[in-house]
Structures are given as structure tokens and as C-alpha cells.
């Protein structure tokens, strides 16, 4: 005669007792033996259903005011045992029965820590140990055991049970829920203790607020190891960190690709400028307002920052700066007199740090980056409660390997080194620019960058207009402006921008405002003067973060002295773009990486 199947066993241990009695009723109806921890057992008993305390199998009382209830081999061997002969023997030797169903939800740790002025001992008592162990053990053995961690699932579970058995698919679904429940629970615990125990600035940093002052609280943290930066002065805001962490990657990659000191000037999570330390000409020193900086000719880093800041001085106002190498006095001197929010670099000389920590009465943000820090390969962010995860964009861009697929002209010689360099600068800048983006570069620096436009031609126009503006600043009329004594640097930048962009005012009030900074008001550029001067701009390199969909981009680039274009292919109009480029004397290079960035 076939032996009768052993009675199924369920262990119940729930903090949230919603739906418990209906569940108990259903289980009893299916002849399941119920074992439950103290409070859970009491409630079921009072409702008149047959239930035993867990101690019936552990032969040990609940202890330490509930700290130990279900933590016992009789429970966990019963849950974890597989249908293997060796496991069956182990159970038989210890007289332990297999457990088939585990119903468990955890102490309300999150609700407890959300209370105002919660103490550490109060929080500690809400850290569930036995429940997490029940959930993990049962979820681990889901090939045999069903784990219910959500009262919402009781009904469906009972429906299946009444039909015979819980399906494998359901067990998998419930196991995943249990694993997610414990992971979420553990994150809440570690976050609570990170705030309490991790030294401020070590693994986590409290930020003044998020993107806006009403977005509080805000913090930056890593879950493993230490934060890769230290604040030597000032305290960063949320957007400062977005800028600093993007800008740092940019300069690190630029320096590695071209073996030059590199600098970036960031605003609102896109570069206003980026450059390597190509020596400055005397005109460049004037245009970038650094002709009085002692020792600049001997500092590659200072020249890199002068270029990065000088590319688009209007956009760089209040920037976050990234520098790829130890900051010296000349670089710090430039920074010290510009309006800027902060700087990130791998180190600072004593003199440089002294200058920077005095800026803004000591509130200027000075971050020291761990130059050896390698981030994990995956990046995750939460948006509207949804986690988005992706492999980090760790694709390498290098002058030698990224720009050797020349499409037109056919049989072209390899690009000159200067073009490879400038395309590298433009392309690495785009890698850290909000998309869509197009960048014009020359002399190892960005000269025009169009960021965050939905239309590519708008990027190409915006960046091209900025490049034109940059070039107009080298016109002798702009170089030789006679300023009123006491005119501030931002006022000069603003007036130069209006003059060079052809935006000199006509309205009397605005005109008076514009003209008050000059000793000698410069004449606006005529259309002919502009045209003649812009015709002298040449050898410019352009990179695009995705393909050019129409030929208008090539035509527009050509108007700003563009000689080299690097872009991904894939547009229906690729061929037409190549033909236009060839006719305009532009070398078109296939750049194989699409570089969207958000
Ligand atoms: N210590 C233990 O062995 C233990 N076993 C289960 N629990 C938790 O105790 C709660 C249920 O307790 P009760 O049945 O006494 O109301 C559940 O949230 C469960 O997750 C435990 N409590 C804390 O770790």
C-alpha cells in the first residue's frame, strides 16, 4: 500500500497581519499544519484555527524579547532541505520535517526611521533578523518552497493551492518578490547607518539641497568604498557635483588621449569650453584676458584653462572647472579672479590652494579628485521612481584610432596631427555634453559648442555662431577696445559679446548702458567687415554626437571655416552629405561611436 503523503507545513511569522486569518483559514482547509511565531500564532489561535507555536518544533522558547524566535535549525533545515537523499537523511537524523510554505513580512524599519528624532536604539530594535532569514532561506529554496512576503498575494496563492499545487512559475514570482523585499529593506538599513556612522565626506556627503532649494534633503554617496573626491574648501551643491563629475571625466580622458594638461569649464552639465594646454599666442592671451598672468607661458595647465574659459566667456560665467593635473599658482591665479563656483583637480600646490581657499571668503568649492578612481561598469539613476541602468560609456576616443576612416575625399592622406588633435578635443567634449550636440574645435580647444538642442541643425548653427563670435574677438577692433577705468571683467565680456555677435543696441536706453564701459565706443562691424574677417577662419574641426541627417549641417559648418568633419554614419542622406563636403573642400571622417549623453 502506498504510504500517505506527509502533511504539508507552513511557517507564519508576519508583522503586518493583514489578510492573515483568511490565509490561515484557507491553509487549514487544505489540511496544512500551521506553525507560527508568538504574535502571529496568538491571533490565529484567538480566531479559532488550529496552530502551534514555532517552539513546538524548535523546543526552545522565544528569547531576548523577540530577538530570537524562528532562528533555529529545526526551522531553517526544514525550509532549506532539497529533495535529495543526503538532505532527507540529515533531516531524518535530526527528526526535522520539511517546510513547504513560508509566510513572512518584516518589522517596519522604514516607518520607524521616518519618525522625527528617532534614536539609534529605536531603529536597531526594528532591524528584523529572523524574518529576513526566513525570507531568504525560503526564496533560495523556491524550487520546492513557496514564500509569501506580500499579503496581496494570499488570495491568488490559495486559489492555486485549492486546485492542487503552487506552480513553479508562481514560486519563482514570489521568490523574486521576497529577494526584492530583503534588498530594499537592507538598503534602508545601510542608508540609515551611512547617515549616522559614515564620516561626513567619507562615504556620503550632505548637500545643501538638490537641483533647487526646495528639494531637500539631498546627498551624494557611494555604497562601497569611499567617495572619490574630498572637499578641501566650500561645500558642493547637487548641480556642482553633476558638473564636477562630468567635467573630471572629460579632462581625464582628454589628457590621456593627447598627453597634454587638459581643462574644462562646465555650466549646467555641459562644457562651455574644454582644451588642452597648447601654448597661447599673444593675441590669444589678450582675448582670453590672461596677458598679465605671471608664469602662464610655463604652465600647460594654465594655458589649457585660459583656452577653456576663453572659448565662450559668457557661458563660463559661474563655471565649475576641471583640471587634469596638479593645479599650480598660474592656473589658480586665473581662477581666483574669475566668477566661478568651484574647481576639481587631482591636487593643488600649496600656493595654489592658498589662493583658491581665499576665494569667496573661503566658500569657493575646491574638490580634490582621486585620480586613480575607477567607477563601477554600470550606472543607475532613479527617475520618477523608476530605476534606469546602463553600462557606463567607457568607449575610448583617441587621435590615432577614432579618426582614420576617411570617407571623402577618396584616397585622402591621413589627417594632419592638428586635425586629429582638434577632432579628439571636440569629440571627447561631446561625450560629456547634453545631447544633441555639435562641437567646433581649433588649436586644441573648443571654439563653439551647441548643447542640448532637439534639432541637430540648431546645434550646428548654435555652435557655428559661437565659433564665429569667438573668431570675431580676434579682430583688431575687439582686441584694441579702450575700456573705461574700473570696468569689470564680466562687463567687458558682455560688451565684447554684443559687439562681436553684431548685437549692438539701437534703443537709446540700452545704448547708453552698452556704451558706458568704453572710453572710445567701437564702431559696430559692417556686414562686409564681418564677412571679410570670417573668411580668414580656417582649418576648423567639427564633431557631431550622432549622424548629420541633412546636408544643411555641412553647409553651415563650412561657413565657419570647417575643414574636417567627424560624425557617425547611418543617415539616409549620408551620401549627399559626403558629396556636399567634398565640393566644399571638407574632409569627412566616419566616427564610429554615437555619443548621446544625458
Ligand atoms: N528573531 C527572530 O527569530 C524572528 N523571526 C521572525 N521575526 C519577525 O517577527 C515578526 C512576527 O512576530 P510575531 O509573530 O511575534 O508578531 C515578523 O515580522 C518576522 O519577520 C523575528 N524577529 C526579528 O528578527
From TrEMBL:
Q: Does the keyword Lipid metabolism apply?
A: no
- Give the catalytic activity: IMP + H2O = 5-formamido-1-(5-phospho-D-ribosyl)imidazole-4-carboxamide; (6R)-10-formyltetrahydrofolate + 5-amino-1-(5-phospho-beta-D-ribosyl)imidazole-4-carboxamide = 5-formamido-1-(5-phospho-D-ribosyl)imidazole-4-carboxamide + (6S)-5,6,7,8-tetrahydrofolate
Instruction: Kindly give the CDD domains that the UniProt entry links to this protein.
Output: IMPCH
Give the record's GO biological process terms.
'de novo' IMP biosynthetic process
What's the chief localization of this chain?
A: cytoplasm
Entry's InterPro entries? AICAR_Tfase_dup_dom_sf (IPR024051), AICAR_Tfase_insert_dom_sf (IPR024050), Cytidine_deaminase-like (IPR016193), MGS-like_dom (IPR011607), MGS-like_dom_sf (IPR036914), PurH-like (IPR002695)
What are the subcellular locations of this protein?
Cytoplasm, Cytosol
What this protein is called in its record is MGS-like domain-containing protein
Amino acid at each position: 500500500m502506498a504510504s500517505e503523503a506527509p502533511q504539508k507545513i507552513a511557517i507564519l511569522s508576519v508583522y503586518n497581519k493583514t489578510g492573515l486569518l483568511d490565509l490561515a483559514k484557507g491553509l487549514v482547509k487544505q489540511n496544512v499544519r500551521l506553525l507560527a511565531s508568538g504574535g502571529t500564532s496568538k491571533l490565529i489561535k484567538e480566531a479559532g484555527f488550529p496552530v502551534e507555536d514555532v517552539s513546538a518544533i524548535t523546543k526552545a522558547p522565544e528569547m531576548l524579547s523577540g530577538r530570537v524566535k524562528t532562528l533555529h535549525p529545526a526551522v531553517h533545515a526544514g525550509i532549506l532541505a532539497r529533495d535529495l537523499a543526503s538532505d532527507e537523511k540529515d533531516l531524518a537524523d535530526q527528526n526535522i520535517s520539511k517546510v513547504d510554505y513560508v509566510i513572512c513580512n518584516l518589522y517596519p524599519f522604514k516607518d520607524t526611521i521616518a519618525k522625527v528624532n528617532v534614536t539609534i536604539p529605536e531603529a536597531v530594535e526594528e532591524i528584523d533578523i529572523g524574518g529576513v532569514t526566513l525570507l531568504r532561506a525560503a526564496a533560495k529554496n523556491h524550487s520546492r518552497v513557496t514564500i509569501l512576503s506580500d499579503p496581496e498575494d494570499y488570495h491568488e496563492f490559495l486559489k492555486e493551492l485549492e486546485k492542487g499545487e503552487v506552480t513553479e512559475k508562481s514560486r519563482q514570482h514570489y521568490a523574486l518578490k521576497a529577494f526584492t523585499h530583503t534588498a530594499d529593506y537592507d538598503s534602508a538599513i545601510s542608508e540609515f547607518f551611512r547617515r549616522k556612522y559614515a564620516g561626513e565626506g567619507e562615504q556620503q556627503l550632505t548637500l545643501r539641497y538638490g537641483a533647487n532649494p526646495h528639494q531637500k534633503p539631498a546627498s551624494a554617496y557611494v555604497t562601497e568604498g569611499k567617495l572619490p573626491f574630498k572637499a578641501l574648501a566650500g561645500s558642493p551643491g547637487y548641480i556642482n557635483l553633476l558638473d564636477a563629475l562630468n567635467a573630471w571625466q572629460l579632462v581625464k580622458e582628454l589628457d590621456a588621449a593627447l598627453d597634454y594638461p587638459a581643462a574644462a569649464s562646465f555650466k549646467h552639465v555641459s562644457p562651455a569650453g574644454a582644451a588642452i594646454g597648447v601654448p597661447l599666442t599673444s593675441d590669444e592671451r589678450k582675448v582670453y584676458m590672461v596677458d598679465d598672468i605671471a608664469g602662464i607661458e610655463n604652465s600647460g595647465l594654465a594655458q589649457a584653462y585660459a583656452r577653456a574659459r576663453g572659448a565662450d566667456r559668457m557661458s563660463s560665467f559661474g563655471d565649475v572647472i576641471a583640471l587634469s593635473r596638479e593645479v599650480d599658482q598660474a592656473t589658480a591665479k586665473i581662477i581666483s579672479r574669475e566668477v566661478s563656483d568651484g574647481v576639481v583637480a587631482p591636487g593643488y600646490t600649496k600656493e595654489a590652494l592658498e589662493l583658491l581657499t581665499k576665494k569667496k571668503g573661503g566658500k569657493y568649492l575646491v574638490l580634490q579628485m582621486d585620480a586613480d578612481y575607477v567607477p563601477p561598469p554600470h550606472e543607475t539613476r532613479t527617475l520618477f521612481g523608476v530605476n534606469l541602468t546602463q553600462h557606463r560609456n567607457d568607449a575610448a576616443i583617441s587621435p590615432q584610432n577614432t579618426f582614420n576612416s576617411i570617407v571623402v575625399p577618396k584616397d585622402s592622406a591621413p589627417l594632419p596631427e592638428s586635425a586629429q588633435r582638434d577632432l579628439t578635443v571636440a569629440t571627447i567634449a561631446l561625450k560629456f555634453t547634453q545631447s544633441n550636440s555639435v562641437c567646433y574645435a581649433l588649436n586644441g580647444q573648443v571654439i563653439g559648442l551647441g548643447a542640448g538642442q532637439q534639432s541637430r541643425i540648431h546645434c550646428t548653427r548654435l555652435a557655428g555662431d559661437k565659433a564665429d563670435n569667438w573668431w570675431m574677438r580676434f579682430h583688431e577692433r575687439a582686441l584694441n577696445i579702450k575700456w573705461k577705468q574700473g570696468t569689470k571683467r564680466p562687463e567687458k565680456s558682455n560688451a565684447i559679446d554684443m559687439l562681436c555677435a553684431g548685437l549692438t543696441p539701437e534703443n537709446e536706453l540700452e545704448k547708453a548702458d552698452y556704451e558706458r564701459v568704453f572710453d572710445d565706443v567701437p564702431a559696430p562691424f559692417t556686414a562686409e567687415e564681418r564677412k571679410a574677417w570670417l573668411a580668414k577662419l580656417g582649418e576648423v574641426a567639427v564633431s557631431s554626437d550622432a549622424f548629420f541627417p541633412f546636408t544643411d549641417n555641412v553647409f553651415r559648418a563650412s561657413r565657419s571655416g570647417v575643414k574636417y568633419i567627424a560624425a557617425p554614419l547611418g543617415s539616409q542622406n549620408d551620401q549627399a552629405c559626403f558629396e556636399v563636403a567634398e565640393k566644399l573642400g571638407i574632409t569627412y571622417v566616419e566616427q564610429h561611436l554615437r555619443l548621446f549623453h544625458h
